[in-house]
Amino acid sequence: MSIEVRHIHKSFGPVHANNDISLKFDDGRIYGILGENGAGKSTLMKILSGFYLPDSGEIFVDGKPVHYTDPQGAIEAGIGMLQQDPLDIGPFTVLENFVYGRPDGALPDWQAAREQLQQLSARFHFDLNPDVTIERLSIGQRQQLEIIRLLALGVRVLILDEPTTGISALQKSVLFGSLKRLAKEDGLTVLFVSHKLEDVLELCDEVAVLRLGRLVGQAKLPVTTDELVAMMFGQELAPPSHEKVAPGDVVLEVRDLTVASHRVTVEGLNLQIRAGEVVGLAGLDGSGQELLMRASVGLLKPLKGRVLINGQDMTGRPFRAFLEAGVGFGAAGRLEEGLVSGLTLTEHFALVDPEQRAWIDWERARAVTEERINHYNIYGRPDSPIETLSGGNQQRVLMALMPSSPHILVLEHPTRGLDVESARWIWEQILARRSEGTAVLFTSADLDEIMTYSDRILVFYAGQVTEVTEPESTTVEELGHLIGGQGIRKEAAA
Amino acid sequence: MDELARILGSIVSNATPLVIASIGETITERVGVVNLSLDGSIALAAMVGFVTAYLSGNALLGLLAGTVIGMLIALLIVVANIELKQDQVAVGFVLTLLAADLAQFLGQDYTRIPGPTFPTVPIPVLADVPFLGQIFFRHNLLVYFSFVLLFGTWFVMYRTRYGLALRAVGERPATAFARGTNVNRTRYFYTAVGGAMVGLAGASYALAIKPGWANPPVMRGDGWIALAIVIFGGWHPFRVAFGAYLFAGLRALASTIQQQTDLPLVLVNAVPWVLMILTLLLVSGGFVERLIRVAPGPVQRVLRNFLRSEPPAALGAEFSRE
């Protein structure tokens, strides 16, 4: 089924999210929809799938104009969308979720639905037990369920919004395999929204690139990454230059550290980080790296061992004492731990004002906020509630809130969910502080990021730590083996 | 044996208004609306139900009147929430006080006089089953209605597409919308149904379980108990009904203790509450999880689903598109 949009406009207040977009998608092909955060890709997809109504413009299915006003109508027109956070119901079983929304009578045919569910999951090698509740599934499994649910409803155009965020490598290859089959064997039109260039290059037949609400480019693959980046940002981006800084005094030291969660234990770890050093922690989620991070900033009490900041024993001291000792911490959950949902930017900056006075000088707080907004290039106003900012801008605020010259920055996934340009900007800020002698300890799921910026790498596997002292002479493949638990002994360094 | 059956039978009968009210509230909360007005609306429904029955000489008409009162109060809450963007808890709480005072004021001329009631109607054949017949099948129509309501609610909730929509709206309205459910209309409908059950429960006190009307009303406090039972029952009809019967049983136990000892009345009246809290701790603690782990795999899953006690995720939350 081919689908075409003509002259789509959509505004949210002053933001022109979609500005005169016209595009055509043919059946049997996979299209990558690219653009940085806030480029308008999700808006366009939500218009196609009936979640938003366009301000003006038309949608054509197989050349005929269609009009629908809600997601149900879009599905009836053959267009279904898998949201980044799959729209399902946590306490429902897989089967209940599969059935809910089907045009059955009062009593659904549970047995027929169960058989259809099992057939479809078998066809795509999905791992779905009909009787398990959604709460017990991974994001990848929830995506799988949404896909076969939409297929069972007869959808001919499948839209996926950032589906590779938060799923395992195996689930990703299963997902890509099934999307290819759906396009080639069943002739479905697949629209794949992503900011991960490598995913788009691997999967798609064509790309359409949006920037600031406009369609700025279309291309048939293969094209090079550089060309895509040039289309997305109007220029080619090199990673910010980073020269090694001669290491100074030891800033952070852990001695014989033992930390544990209910899943994993890190035992007897010794580590020194010197001023101006960047240390990257690699490993699958939950391999122990987050325990080291949290112990280093006083958020997790070690079972054994010491934590020293600038030679001073900080073991067991509260988080606040670590902050006062010059530690800056950026949590992975931006809205959960780093920022306060519901507070405005001004309120955030007032909260971290070094002069802790009882009465807030709002004028001064506002002035500080405006200065930071300019300096950090944040897309938002002093009175914008923080949750209305995009992920990239939230991360900028988080950076702006940190002390300006800490002794050490401890950053969990500093660029997670950010587009290339935002990520590059964040690293410029981090490296600027490093050149003033700040040490950096960070985690990332992106191996390229770890390889690019680290002076040393610690690889975590099930609580075991392997140190890579020469990232320059290590390949991503070697690192990948270490993360998977292979070659721990062989590669082990002092 | 006969004595035991008689006691259990009276517990089933006495628990009936609690069963009906707490299942009504379960329906309402499952769709995402808190009807906090229970204690007041039960009293007002009882008063209006009694007076209507007394003046018309028709118990069924009284029951209908009480049902309508409960439904109207519940609708006030949901209208205030959806149309006027008012907080459900605040509106519900004010309505509790208002309805309770109205009941006392309007009912003051009708206290302690006899009126029509629902007679006991033994069910043929079943009533003669030894032991069980005495417990379950020699009651008035309202008790039988509570049985039907219990199984009917469970069936609709877990076996029909309407039940899927009902639960989805209370859990994640955005998903319900995406699946073609009209979120606000669903909330109106099931809040009205749940409120009607609360009103029916109120009228059933005055017309069957504790006939008549009194100032202060005999059932004062039962509305709050019903709200607690919904939580105790983890928003699942069977567990909620179990909670209602358990509470009625504890109450019967307390009154027996009181008759046979000279413990202070206040102390004895507190016994059901204390036992309820202990049961709640037992149910929600790690004890149950340990019990579940002993069970074989498939049974574990059924048990876990049955014993989950998370409130509906969108309880009290407004929904608007985008």
Give a verbal description of the structure:
Chain A folds into 2 domains: 3-233, Rossmann fold (3-Layer(aba) Sandwich), CATH 3.40.50.300; 250-326 and 403-491, P-loop containing nucleotide triphosphate hydrolases (Rossmann fold, 3-Layer(aba) Sandwich). Chain A contains 18 helices and 20 strands. Chain A has helices spanning 41-48, 71-76, 94-99, 110-123, 139-152, 169-184, 197-203, 225-233, 289-296, 319-324, 334-338, 345-351, 362-375, 391-401, 420-434, 447-453, 476-483, 488-491; strands spanning 3-12, 15-25, 30-34, 56-61, 64-66, 79-82, 157-161, 189-193, 206-211, 214-220, 250-260, 265-274, 278-282, 304-309, 312-313, 327-330, 408-412, 439-443, 456-461, 464-468. In chain A, strand 9 and strand 10 form a beta hairpin. The longest helix of chain A is centred in the middle third of the chain and has 16 residues, at 169-184. Mean pLDDT of chain A is 87; it is low at 488-494. Chain B has 322 residues and is mainly α. Chain B has a domain at 2-217. Helix content of chain B is 73%, strand content 2%. Chain B has 14 helices and 2 strands; from the N terminus they run ααααβαβααααααααα. In chain B, helix 1 packs across helix 11 (237-260), helix 2 (38-56) packs antiparallel against helix 3 (59-82) and helix 2 crosses helix 9 (183-209). Chain B is globular, with a radius of gyration of 20 Å. The termini of chain B are far apart.
